[in-house]
Design brief:
There is one protein chain. By secondary structure, the protein is α/β, with parallel strands linked by helices. 35% of the residues lie in helices and 20% in strands. It has a 6-stranded antiparallel beta sheet with strand order 6-3-10-1-2-7, covered by helices on one side. Strands 13-12-11-14-15 form a 5-stranded parallel beta sheet, with helices on both faces. Strand 8 and strand 9 form a beta hairpin. It is globular.
Length: 388
């Protein structure tokens, strides 16, 4: 279902399609500590094609209130012309801060600039102290807790020009989200499952740039949203007789909703086994009604659920894998594909460790032989990961 080169869409990363979001709803039930939303993006008439396993790129805009605050700290109007790297013509400061540049992620470079421009002795002393070699270990934490607006706020005597600030800001990059639908069921739509990011650092509320752009500021059916399809090697096996095991806690469930839709639409004979986990079963079972229907209709052979906050001892997807070690090994030994999607830092590592352990114990192998077996699974594309 990838684009036929002869009929490829004119829209891509460098020329995004202005799509309309037609649905934006919260998937968690009241009482959840999470905010996970389901979005439907209309791509009819764009010529864009996708397959289960692909991602959607979204170009966000920064929050108007954050842009306004930065402009105010500069003592600017927003109409000042600024030149971006590789640009041939200037644009306004407001446009640059709204849609071209990232307002977070300051580095020590800005501190050097502020030190050179500061006129207040206390501010100069604080900046100099931060840049001393002995502050090297604490500096990353200091910067991690701050965005550029915090630094302009904390060192007000350092007056930067619009161009000086812009020269320190990185390009605002598109965000990629795993697609949660199959084109076999939704050719004119792309569904997304997104955790909306909101948190506090340095006594200031922070907002995930793209997740809150989609959740709060894109008006369904109205706001044109620049998007493109990012094609991936991640995806269900072409041989629909193969069994597949899918491990996707939290928003990691997105591509597996697409996989199952895809396999149901193509009448796949292979079995589907889903591992899903989140905090609480009562509030965080994403797409619960759909999964129940799939299990009832035997489209999903089994679904194993891990709820980390429903009992004193936290239970995760890798614990459920270990509980079902014998059956999991039987599926893999008989040719099943194993897929993982979600958090790269911890979950994917823990799932990988559990997989190695299950193959070793159930397959009667030592650690080296199990590692070799896993390597072969990867080589045969039978172990695939979409982690972030």
């Amino acid at each position: 279902m990838s684009a036929d080169p002869a009929h490829a869409s004119v829209y891509n990363k460098d020329n995004p399609f202005l799509a309309k979001i037609t649905e934006n709803r919260v998937l968690n039930r009241p009482g959840s500590s999470k905010e996970t939303r389901h979005f439907v993006v209309h791509i009819g008439g764009s010529g864009l094609t996708y397959k289960a396993g692909d991602s959607l790129g979204v170009y966000p805009e920064n929050r108007p209130s954050e842009v306004a605050e930065l402009i105010k700290h500069l003592g600017a109007t927003g109409d000042e012309p600024v030149l971006l790297p590789k640009a041939t013509a200037p644009i306004t400061l407001r446009e640059a801060l709204t849609s071209r540049l990232a307002l977070a992620g300051p580095t020590s470079k800005i501190l050097h600039t502020l030190l050179a421009k500061a006129t207040d002795e206390e501010e100069k002393a604080e900046l100099a102290a931060l840049l001393q070699p002995e502050a090297k270990e604490m500096l990353p934490n200091f910067l991690d807790e701050r965005e550029f607006v915090d630094l302009l706020d904390e060192f007000p005597s350092a007056k930067l020009t619009a161009q000086e600030l812009v020269d320190h800001l990185r390009k605002l990059m598109p965000r990629l989200y795993s697609i949660a639908s199959s084109p076999k069921q939704h050719p004119d739509e792309i569904h997304l499952t997104i955790a909306v990011v909101r948190y506090t650092t340095n006594n200031r509320e922070r907002h995930g740039v793209c997740s809150t752009f989609l959740a709060d500021r894109v008006k369904p059916h109205h706001t044109p949203t620049p998007i493109f399809v990012s094609h991936s090697h991640f995806g269900p096996p072409e041989d629909t007789n193969r069994d597949i095991i899918m491990v996707g806690p939290g928003t990691g469930i997105a591509p597996f909703r697409a996989f199952v839709q895809d396999r149901v639409a193509s009448g796949a004979k292979g079995r589907n086994w889903v591992f899903f986990g989140d905090q609480k079963s009562a509030t965080d079972y994403l797409y619960e009604e759909e999964w129940i229907k799939y299990v009832d209709s035997k489209s999903v052979t089994r679904i194993d659920l891990a709820w980390s906050r429903d009992q004193d001892k936290k239970v995760y997807v890798q614990d459920k894998m270990r509980e079902n070690a014998a059956e999991l090994w039987a599926w893999i030994k008989n040719g099943a594909y194993f897929f993982v999607c979600g958090d790269a830092k911890r979950m994917a590592k823990d799932v990988d460790a559990a997989l190695h352990e299950i193959i070793a114990t159930q397959g009667g192998m030592d650690a080296a032989a199990a590692a070799e077996y896993v390597k072969t699974l990867k080589k045969e594309k039978r172990y695939q990961r979409d982690v972030y």
